[in-house]
Amino acid sequence: MTMDPLPTVLTMEHEAMQEELARATRAGGRTEEAAWRVTRVLFPHVYREEEFAIPPLLLLPRLARGEVTPDMESILAKTDVMKAELPRMLQEHKVIVEALQKLLQAATADGHTGFARFAQKLILHAQTEEEVLYPASILVGEYIRLKLGKA
Predict the structure, then answer these.
(1) Of all residues in the chain, what percent are helix, strand and coil, respectively (each to 5)?
(2) What pTM value is reported for the model?
């Protein structure tokens, strides 16, 4: 199965996040320092998300329509990695959220309300991933495995 590119909404979100964080790293003061800390912990994590957490989500529209085809079996390698890496991904979120909270505090102290709101938004984004996207990614694999009799 050839995989489509990552969902536009998610790639646009990641690109916007990178752009805003890049602006924060040029803000000066405590905001700049805190933004660099976020960058260091966030981007390796985002790379892993784009490697194995997000690709299974591309199948959700087809699965919701009841389509299950043998070529979907190829996604199982990614969902197996996602399932195995889930504890690490959640631990990374803790580190990322701590860095974002420091960015929120620094941006607030420096008077950069836009960067403070950005940090709040990313904290909520992490929660959405933990509660919705990561479980959905794993469930895609479990569902396909069940439907294709690969259990």
Answers:
(1) 85, 0, 15
(2) 0.89
